[in-house]
Model the fold of this input.
Amino acid sequence: MSATLQEACYENTTAVYMALELSNKQWKVLIGDGHHHRHKAVVAGDISGLLEQIALFRAKWCVPSEAPVYSCYEAGRDGFWLHRCLLSHGVKNVVVDSSSIKVDQRARRMKTDRLDVKSLYGQLIRYVKGDDDVWRVVHVPSVEHEDRRRLYRERERLISEQGQHTNRIGSDQDTCKK
Done:
């Protein structure tokens, strides 16, 4: 069996679409042009690896460098640093409200990162082509506003931790009295 070489480059590509499923150790990436796509895994936080995947896809399918790159990911624990980083590299990114992603409630649904990123990819293409009802886009706060929210969250965490310690100490004293 021999490999068939691609004779002509795919010329009708107008954009590159990239969906990301973020987790602690690695990010699942689905990158494509609407006709061809590839699944890859990138170490979490590795922006250079992510940009390399875009370059490899462009090279394989002869996508011109001036073609725009659209990306999306679900809002979550990573915050908005990735959004700002992608924008600084010329990627048009959208942060999606995860509760707004439509799923069939009657069907049994497999839940894997690979399937989630495939769903995000298809919805990203629909969104870029003008379907605004696909999902809700999260408003990305400024860096200063995000830092102010971080202080509030830290205070809430400390208050909760204080309550846990108080309850533990109180329960230890109750067991010593018995």
